[in-house]
Write a structure and sequence with these properties.
Blueprint: H1 3-16, H2 21-28, H3 33-40, H4 48-57, H5 62-66, E1 78-79, H6 85-108, H7 130-144, H8 154-160, E2 165-169, E3 177-182, E4 186-192, H9 197-212, H10 224-242, H11 245-259, H12 264-274, H13 278-287, H14 293-300, H15 303-321, H16 328-339, H17 345-352, H18 359-366
Parallel strand pairs: 2-4
Antiparallel strand pairs: 1-3, 3-4
Helix pairs in contact: 2-3, 6-16, 7-10, 9-10, 12-13, 13-14, 16-17
């Protein structure tokens, strides 16, 4: 590839992630932005070692930078709260790049089909009332066989059985989650890795609503009052899915039979048992008629309950957070590619975001072997 063509690609890649020349130069380690400016003008040749830095900071692969033709992947993300300006460009570039890596691992292993969540033939009428949304959530709960505590099984079933790609990003206070259905990547859920586990559980269920209604609610129409209305529907769905009425009633009845009252500590314990926040539990109790809405609303803002939850559950919840969440399937695919010789150790380290010296420790920690081990030849059976 000639120097001018590469220069144009590097400039386009920088603009795609929303970085100014000055900001990009700082990230790339150049003392002066003029060095980067010279590279983008084709006046200065790019070193091989610099290309790796460009790919890392611009969220693109070396292959895409050096390919004969450069194709930019377009992705339409539905954000809970959309980032703005340069932050949005950079985030969406990082998410797109991660999806490209995910899909490339699938292709290396010969997995051509992408995920599919079209298990219901939905129409707008199916989500027109709270009762119908509850019915959709109940049908989803049963179809996916999520069990009595859906928050702890939902992610694994969606990822392993239905091919949903989970992308974890540290979004801080920028946003909580996003989702899309992409023609090449399939269904994708972006989750804020900075959130507490019980908040991530709820976000995941919320985004699932958007995925299974993707075809009947065009994203280009989601704005203003209509967006707010759809978001309320998604909240209702998430609540009903993670807190199935029969299971919640069993939990409440068990406490009631023992002590004929429901203390604040009981609310905290039940919420923790279902993997949701106390606020989510309170509003669900109101929805299924266990308490009045006014009571739920009052308790949701009760400082005493909030403090009790924080004090009683502080250590337990801190322990539950553990390391940042990851996509188990993504790591599993990467390890499979490595042990089959489809990825070099250097490329493996790049994809999973670790140093090459950490590879063996990483694989051991994942509980996966790097090599295929011994194999035997099996003779074809005689018919």
């Amino acid at each position: 590839m000639d120097q001018k063509t590469l220069a144009k690609r590097l400039k386009a890649a920088r603009e795609r992630v929303g970085l100014s020349v000055i900001d990009a130069a700082k990230r790339l380690g150049y003392k002066s932005y003029q060095t980067l400016s010279s590279i983008e003008k084709g006046e200065r040749k790019v070193k091989a070692s610099e290309l790796t830095s460009f790919a890392r900071e611009y969220f693109c692969s070396l292959d895409s930078l050096l390919a004969e033709t450069f194709q930019e992947t377009k992705m339409v993300l539905l954000w809970r709260k959309s980032p703005e300006g340069a932050a949005k460009k950079e985030l969406e570039s990082a998410i797109t790049y991660h999806c490209e890596q995910y899909r490339s691992l699938e292709r290396l292993l010969g997995y051509e089909s992408i995920g599919d969540l079209n298990f219901f033939d939905l129409r707008i009428s199916n989500i027109s009332t709270p009762a119908r949304i509850d019915s959709l959530a109940n049908n989803t709960w049963r179809l996916l066989e999520l069990g009595s505590r859906p928050a702890f099984t939902l992610k694994n079933i969606l990822e392993q059985t239905y091919g949903v790609k989970f992308i974890y990003q540290p979004l801080a206070s920028i946003s909580s989650a996003a989702s899309t259905v992409h023609p090449d990547f399939g269904p994708v859920i972006v989750v804020n890795s900075d959130e507490a586990p019980w908040r991530r559980n709820y976000d995941l269920a919320h985004e699932l609503f958007h995925l299974i209604t993707w075809k009947i609610i065009p994203t280009e129409e989601l704005n203003g009052e209509y967006l707010a209305e759809v978001e309320k529907k998604a909240e209702r769905f998430a609540s009903a899915l993670l807190l199935p009425e029969p299971e919640v009633r069993k939990a409440i009845d068990k406490v009631w039979q023992n002590q004929r009252t429901l203390a604040y500590a009981d609310i905290v314990d039940i919420a923790r048992d279902f993997g949701v926040s106390t606020v989510a539990l309170l509003y669900r109790l109101s929805a299924i008629g266990c308490i009045k809405w006014e009571t739920a609303n009052k308790l949701a803002g009760d400082e005493s309950l909030a403090n009790l939850e924080a004090n009683l559950d502080k250590k337990k919840r801190a322990d539950d957070w553990g390391d940042r969440p990851v996509s188990d399937r993504f790591h599993s695919l990467a390890v499979k590619c490595l042990r089959k010789g489809l990825l070099s150790r250097g490329k493996f380290a790049e994809i999973v975001g670790i140093d090459r010296s950490e590879i063996d420790l990483f694989i051991e920690g994942e509980g996966l072997m790097e090599t295929e081990g011994e194999s035997i030849e099996i003779m074809a059976p005689r018919c």
